[in-house]
Amino acid sequence: MMQRRNFLAAGFAAFIAGCNEIGDSAWFGKLSEGAQNWHRGLHRALGGGRIPMAPEFTRADLSPYFRGNGSLTVDTDAYRAAEAEGFASWRLAVSGLVDNPMELSMDDIRALPQRTQITRHDCVEGWSAIGEWTGPQLSRVLEAAGVKEEAEFIVFHCADTLGGSRYYESCDMDDALHPQTIIAHQLNGEALPVRNGAPLRMRIERQLGYKHAKYLTGIEAVASLDEIGEGKGGYWEDRADYQWYAGI
Amino acid sequence: MAKPKKRHALSTRLWHWINAISVIVLFMSGLNISNGHRRLYWGHEGFAPEQAWLEVPRFPGWMTIPDYYSLSAARDWHVIFSLVFAFSLLAFMVFAFANGHMVRDIFARAKEWKPSNIGRDIVEHLKFNFDHGSGKYNILQKIAYSGVILVLIPLMIFTGMVMSPGMEAAWPWLTDLFGGRQTARSLHFLAAWSLFAFFVVHILLVLASGPFKQVRDMITGGSE
To answer: Which domain holds residue B187?
Structure first.
């Protein structure tokens, strides 16, 4: 009996060691990327021809308090000064593969047609919160800037740093042009709180929280993510191998 | 279709071992993911301690894949094996219905549901006599196998799909069916531990009923 138990324990230890070995291999990373593409393909295909939309809720469903996570502010004098003047001089740059690069002020953004949506925010950790977001659809901004044919991804540049590096994120054109993908400047009818990304943050409702870049300063259309950051398409993707497709 | 001459059909054996690996990998990587946020809620949303119905323990490294805390690496395992888990079950079900295994061996007959039959079966199990009953499986086995194949594993798959925001956008009715993402997450956790309980009992009963022959037959097919 003792021997059998030792045998089982040794087998279990070998299994764990094997999993660690496999997890660190290059082909496992490729396999994971392949599986993500499978999931994404299924998510798009199972929509049954309509545009798959994230569920929207009513004001009765709002979380009493919308917690902040990740960066809770931007620790620079420039940001504190901008906050003090209500972000009047904040600019959103639209650049990259576009016909008309632009710089939008907060007034420009508020002057665009607005979309208000009550959606559930899902953190990769597992918790969820419901909030009401208001802002122009990203598709409107991209249309005004004239995105070129060869653009495959939209990169979101941010003011905040985590561990000394600038936060950034990216999505494909399917999510960029999705009706619920908005540049939010309001949460629950008020100007965006600092902890939630004031004055501008992305809402990419069919993906997890880390895709929803906060403290947004720039939108860049690109053909490839290779030259952006470390090349994996986002801060957490570069640093901790988080999945680029966070719709899973 | 002709009755298979082997004790276990090839499709059953293939699925059994693929599923065994999937369950172990998904369970252990799932415990790692659970460590990312150790509270469970009912309904659509929840993040604060006062909203939680359960605070789960932190699972130690030896219980998780990988054996250190890494949400991204654990999610890689989960993302890969969720597809293996779901599509291998689908394939098994197609074969098991087509070759009659499901209806003939797994589904219980009306007379088997009689309390006297169930009572007798419990007594036989307590006497460690597992070779009884007229069909291939006795009533307790039928309840356990059909419960796992038709209820628990599908519940794991569907609650997992609800938690995927991209999947939810495609099939929002699935979230409504369960009553919210956080409810689905709680059910996912409960079903995982129910599956673990089955796993433990299953292995103990294999060990108690001639493990060498049982494992050999599940590999080679054995004979009726």
So the answer is: 10-44+51-220
Domain ranges of chain A: 1-52, 53-240
If you measure CA to CA, which chain B residue comes closest to A57? B44
- With CB atoms and an 8 Å threshold, state whether B182 touches A128: yes
What is the domain-level CATH number for residue B15?
1.20.950.20
Helix (H) or strand (E) segment spanning residue A121: strand A115-122
Instruction: Check A61 against B45: CB less than 8 A apart.
Output: yes
Cα of first residue to Cα of last residue in chain A, in angstroms, is 43
**B126 at the A interface (CB within 8 A)?**
no
Record: contact A23-B77, CB cut-off 8 A: yes
Cβ-Cβ contacts under 8 Å, B39 against chain A: 127
CATH number of A53-240: 3.90.420.10
Regions of chain A with pLDDT less than 70: 1-2
Q: Which of B33, B71, B76, B82 to mutate to test the interface with A (most CBs of A within 10 A)?
A: B76
Question: Model confidence over B108-130: pLDDT tens digits?
Answer: 999 999 999 999 999 999 888 88
Q: Please state, in angstroms and rounded to a whole number, the distance separating the CA atoms of residues B202 and A116.
A: 52
Q: Tell me whether the omega of the peptide bond preceding residue A199 falls within 30 degrees of 0, making it cis.
A: yes
b/e map of B1-12 (b: 16 or more CB within 10 Å)?
Answer: eeebeebbbebb
In total, how many domains does chain B have? Answer: 1
Residue B91 lies in a domain: yes
Model pLDDT for residues B60-116, shown as the tens digit of each residue = 999 999 999 999 999 999 999 999 999 999 999 999 999 999 999 999 999 999 999
pLDDT at residue B1 tops 60? no
- C-alpha torsion B115→B118→B119→B121, nearest 10: 160
